[in-house]
Specification:
heterodimer; A: about 400 residues; Rossmann fold; five-stranded antiparallel sheet; B: about 300 residues; mainly alpha; MetI-like fold; globular
C-alpha cells in the first residue's frame, strides 16, 4: 500500500514525439484511479512509467515519498496485470502465481499458503495444476490477477485487463475487480479506453488527451461538470449531444430553436465571459417526451424519430436536426475514436433518452422537451466549459 | 549424405497415415493419391540408405553380385571397422568435436539472437548482414588460408582446429534460426517477469529460455548435423587419428589388399555414424513441440 505521486511526469521519445506531457497526479493510499482516454492519449505510457518499463524523460515519480525514477521495476514493489495477461505458458497456474514469490525467495510453506489464499479469492483452486493454454479467457485473466495479488505489492497497475474478454464476462469481471480492490485496499492504477469501465470502477478518473491531463475527478463529477468539450464528449454513453448556438440576452439559439437559459446558467456564462457563438451540450437524459413533462422550464421542438431503441426501462430515440453541426478539433477526435467519421450526416444527430412510457414511434414526428437548466455551454475556440463550477 | 536422408524419412514416415486418415474424408481417391506420393517420397529417401545397409552386411565376394539383398549375411564388416583403432578414434573425435561445437554455437547463438530479436543497438543491421555474409561465404576458398594459419599457430590436427571453423559457420545458422523463434515469444512475458521481480538475467533464464527451448533444440540439431557431416574441413585440417573425424577417416579406409575397394567397411562405418544422428534427432524431436507458447497471451 502506498501513495503514488506523479510530479510533472513527461515522456519524450528520442524522435522528439511527446507522449505524455507534465502529468501531475497524487494517488492516495488505497485509491482506485482510472486513466482513460482514446488510443494514443498516453495512458499506457504513463502506466509503464509508473511500472518502470519505460524511462521517465522529465519529472519525478514518488512512491511513499521516495523518488523511484531510477529504480528497476522489480525494486518498485508494484504488480501489473497486462492486457494480454502475459501468463508464463510453460508453468502451471500454481507456478505462475508463485513466480513472484519464488523470485523474492519466500520459503516454500508461505508460497503455498499465499498461492492457495489467492486461488481461493479468485476461485481458481480447481485449476491450480493446469497450464494457461487450457484455460478460458476469464480464467486466464484471473490467474493474471492472482499473480499480481500474491505478493501483496504496494500498488497494482492494470493495463486494460478486461478488454480481451467478451462483453458479458467483462461486466462480471468488472465487479470482481472492484470488489477485489475494495477487499485488499491496495492502491490501484487502471488504464482503459472504455468510459463505462472508467465510470463504474474508479474512485477518481483521469481523462487524458494527447498526453495532457484534461480533468481529474470522481466519475460523477466528471459526468456532471466536464471541464471541456473533450471530457464532456468522452464521458457518458450515449455521448452528450453537441449543437452550435448563439447566445443573446440570456437566450440560446440552436438548431433546436430558442430557449431561455435558467438564471444559474446565465450567471455562469456571464461570469465566464461567454462569447456570442458557442457550442451547447445536452445529455440524452435531459430530453424528454413533451407529453410527459408538465410545466418545467425548458425548450421544446418537434422532430421525426429516425430510430427508436426500446431498452425496457427507457427508450432511446435518435433524431437528425437540420442545420449547422458543431465542429471542433476535440469533437473530430472523439468522432474518429468512436469510428463514426465515415458516417455521412447532414445536420446534427441527436440521441435522447426518454421514459419508457413515451409514445415515440420510429418514423413519426414527436414533440420533445429539454431541460434548460442542464445545458452546458462550451467555448468553441478553447473547448472550455463555460458553465463549469467546482 | 545418408545422415540427412535418415532424418527426413524419420520425420515423414509416421506422419502420412495420420494426415490421410485424420482429416480428409473426401473420398478414397484423394487418399490413394496421397499414399502414392508418400510412398514415392519415402522410397526415394530410403532406398539409398537400405542399399548401404545391405552392402554393409555383404561379404567381400558378394559386393558386386547386383542383388539388393545380401545372399550371404555377415557381421564381418562391422567387426573389421571396430578392430582398427582408426575408426574408433574417429568416432570419438566426431562425437566430441560436433558436441562441443554445437554447445558453444548454440549458447553464443542464443545470446546473439536474443539481442537481434529484442534490442535496438547500433550496428544491429551490420551484425545481421555480416553473419549472413559468413553463411554464404564459400568454405572452399577458406581451406588453404585456414590450413596455413592453423599450421603456424599450432592448431592444425587438433580438436580446437576443427571446432573453431565449425562454430564460425554454424553461428549464422544458429542466429538466424533462433532469432526467428525469439520473435515469436510475446515481449509482454518479459515485462511481466520484470514486474514480478525478476532481474533481466532471471527473466531470460526462467521465462524466455524455456519458451525458446524448441528453437534451441531445432538449432542444436541443425548445427550438430552440419558439424557431423562436414568433410571439407575435416579432411583439410587434420592429418592423424588424434583429430580426424569419421567422414574424413572413411576416405582413408583400405581394403584387404590395395586392389580391393573397401566398400563393405565403408558402408558399415556409414551405417554406424548414422546412428548418433538418429538418436540425437529422436531425443530432441520430442521437445520440439509446436505451440508451446499457446496460452501466454490471448491471440
Amino acid at each position: 500500500m502506498a501513495e503514488i505521486v506523479l510530479d510533472k511526469i513527461t515522456k519524450r521519445y528520442p524522435d522528439g514525439a511527446l507522449a505524455v506531457s507534465e502529468v501531475d497526479l497524487q494517488i492516495a493510499d488505497g485509491e482506485f484511479i482510472i486513466l482513460v482516454g482514446p488510443s494514443g492519449c498516453g495512458k499506457s505510457t504513463t502506466l509503464n512509467m509508473i511500472a518502470g518499463l519505460e524511462d521517465i524523460s522529465e519529472g519525478e515519480l514518488r512512491i511513499d515519498g521516495q523518488r523511484v525514477n531510477e529504480k528497476a521495476p522489480k525494486d518498485r514493489d508494484i504488480a501489473m496485470v497486462f492486457q494480454s495477461y502475459a501468463l508464463y505458458p510453460h508453468m502451471s497456474v500454481r507456478e505462475n502465481m508463485a513466480f513472484p514469490l519464488r523470485l523474492a525467495k519466500v520459503d516454500d510453506a508461505t508460497v503455498q499458503a499465499k498461492v492457495n489464499e489467492a486461488a481461493e479469492i479468485l476461485d481458481l483452486v480447481a485449476h491450480l495444476d493446469r497450464k494457461p493454454g487450457n484455460l478460458s479467457g476469464g480464467q486466464r485473466q484471473r490467474v493474471a490477477m492472482g499473480r499480481a495479488i500474491v505478493r501483496s505489492p504496494k500498488a497494482f497497475l492494470m493495463d486494460e485487463p478486461l478488454s480481451n474478454l467478451d462483453a458479458k464476462l467483462r461486466v462480471q469481471m468488472r465487479t470482481s475487480v472492484s470488489k477485489l480492490q475494495k477487499q485488499l485496499g491496495t492502491t490501484t492504477v487502471y488504464v482503459t479506453h472504455d468510459q463505462t469501465e472508467a465510470m463504474t470502477l474508479g474512485d477518481r478518473v483521469v481523462v487524458l488527451r494527447g498526453g495532457l491531463v484534461q480533468q481529474v475527478g470522481s466519475p460523477q463529477f466528471l459526468y456532471e461538470q466536464p471541464a471541456n468539450l473533450f471530457v464532456a464528449g468522452f464521458i457518458g454513453s450515449p455521448a452528450m449531444n453537441f449543437l452550435p448556438g448563439t447566445l443573446e440576452n440570456g437566450a440560446l439559439n440552436t438548431p433546436l430553436g430558442t430557449v431561455t437559459l435558467s438564471d444559474r446558467i446565465r450567471r455562469l456564462a456571464e461570469a465566464a465571459n461567454a462569447p456570442r457563438e458557442l457550442i451547447a451540450g445536452i445529455r440524452p437524459e435531459h430530453f424528454e417526451d413533451a407529453k410527459l413533462v408538465e410545466g418545467k422550464p425548458g425548450g421544446s421542438f418537434t422532430a421525426t424519430v429516425d430510430v427508436l431503441e426500446s431498452m425496457g426501462s427507457d427508450k432511446y430515440a435518435y433524431f437528425t436536426v437540420e442545420g449547422e453541426t458543431a465542429t471542433t478539433a476535440e469533437l473530430d477526435e472523439l468522432a474518429a475514436d468512436a469510428g463514426s467519421t465515415d458516417v455521412p450526416a447532414s445536420g446534427s444527430s441527436i440521441v435522447t433518452r426518454l421514459a419508457a412510457s413515451s409514445g415515440a414511434v420510429a418514423g413519426q414526428p414527436l414533440d420533445l422537451w429539454y431541460d434548460s437548466d442542464k445545458i452546458q455551454l462550451f467555448d468553441p475556440a478553447s473547448g472550455k466549459n463555460l458553465t463549469y463550477t467546482e | 549424405m545418408s545422415v540427412d536422408i535418415d532424418q527426413v524419412t524419420d520425420n515423414t514416415k509416421p506422419a502420412p497415415p495420420a494426415r490421410t486418415t485424420g482429416r480428409v474424408p473426401s473420398g478414397a481417391g484423394k487418399k490413394v493419391k496421397w499414399a502414392l506420393i508418400d510412398i514415392l517420397v519415402v522410397a526415394y529417401a530410403l532406398i539409398p540408405v537400405l542399399w548401404i545397409l545391405s552392402l554393409s552386411f555383404k561379404t567381400a565376394d558378394g559386393l558386386n553380385d547386383k542383388s539388393f539383398f545380401p545372399k550371404e549375411w555377415t557381421w564381418k564388416n562391422y567387426q573389421d571397422i571396430f578392430k582398427t583403432n582408426e575408426f574408433v578414434s574417429a568416432l570419438v573425435n566426431s562425437i566430441g568435436i560436433a558436441l562441443i561445437s554445437t554447445i558453444i554455437a548454440v549458447v553464443l547463438g542464443t545470446m546473439a539472437a536474443y539481442a537481434v530479436a529484442r534490442l535496438d543497438f547500433p550496428g544491429k543491421k551490420a551484425l545481421v548482414g555480416v553473419s549472413l555474409l559468413i553463411a554464404m561465404f564459400p568454405q572452399v576458398s577458406l581451406v588453404s588460408p585456414l590450413f596455413n594459419i592453423e599450421r603456424n599457430i599450432g592448431l592444425f590436427d587438433t580438436w580446437p582446429g576443427l571446432i573453431l571453423p565449425y562454430i564460425t559457420f554454424a553461428l549464422p545458422l544458429a542466429i538466424y534460426t533462433l532469432s526467428a523463434f525469439f520473435r515469436e515469444i510475446p515481449w509482454e512475458l518479459e515485462k511481466a517477469a520484470k514486474m514480478d521481480g525478476a532481474t533481466p538475467a532471471q527473466a531470460f533464464r526462467k521465462v524466455i529460455a524455456p519458451l525458446a527451448a524448441p528453437g534451441v533444440f531445432t538449432t542444436a540439431i541443425l548445427v550438430f548435423i552440419f558439424c557431423w557431416n562436414d568433410f571439407l574441413f575435416a579432411i583439410s585440417l587434420t592429418s592423424t587419428t588424434s583429430s580426424r573425424t569419421v567422414p574424413a577417416a572413411l576416405s582413408f579406409f583400405t581394403g584387404a589388399s590395395q586392389f580391393e575397394a573397401p566398400n563393405g567397411t565403408i558402408s558399415a562405418a556409414a551405417v554406424i555414424i548414422t546412428i548418433p544422428i538418429i538418436l540425437f534427432v529422436l531425443f530432441f524431436q520430442r521437445r520440439i513441440v509446436a505451440g508451446l507458447t499457446s496460452g501466454a497471451v490471448k491471440g
